[in-house]
Amino acid sequence: VHARFPDGRLHLQHGPIDCIVEAWGERAEVEAAYSQAVMRFQDILPVLVTELALLRATVGSIRPAPLGPVAHRMVAAVWPHRDLFITPMAAVAGAVADDLLEALVLGRKLDKAHVNDGGDIALHLNAPHEFDVGIADDPHMRALAGSLRLNARSPIRGIATSGWRGRSQSLGIADAVTVLARSAASADAAATLIANAVNLDHPAIRRLPARAVKEDSDLGDLLVTVEVGALPRQAVEEALESGAALARSFRDRNLIEGAFLCLDGQCRTVQDGAFATLAVPC
To answer: What is the C-alpha separation between 148 and 273, in angstroms, rounded?
Structure first.
């Protein structure tokens, strides 16, 4: 599917890939950019499907060598995290967003643009323009837990969110972990791992084997979170600190620019404040 919303935004959907694309600039440039994105979208899923076995396999000491361009982005994003359990599928939505954004802006003069693939977002931004981003702590609620303003001097070009309440499976109990990085694929991979790290054992947490929840899960028989009941405040703080510690290590390795972690109404932020202002009311 490729169609236009009444407000002019472009909608691209094929199987599990569901993207909203928006660009700003002169009308002719925007229309040409949208046409480029539509053309690029045609074979993204068919090519990915041919390499699913490789992309669902755990990354180890030998770097995978996929053929497709989106798969290459996925592997590049997860390779720095190969000391942890991860598969290239951890970066699929972000990698698709990055790939479509590259096609969108190629040869075009745009003020700014974004590709939003189910909440994983690739950004294009030229001075003096800015992006205002709202951050939610629960995908089922419309209220915002924080806000972010990005300018063209920021290195942040990717935003991704993960957690047990979202559309992807999680080993952890975070309601939401939003990561800011230099690409959407990098943000996607890091958000997955940080959300996994927001974790602890407690009788209020219910888990099931990943394949019992989703037959073709790349997580196999690993236990994924399906329910989180009431937790004592100390347990929430412990779980959040575990995730924040991993986020700080990623930031120190220049793998991410910042992170926002939420669980049961409590939040943690990991940021240096040099390029973005993150307002957190909770």
So the answer is: 11
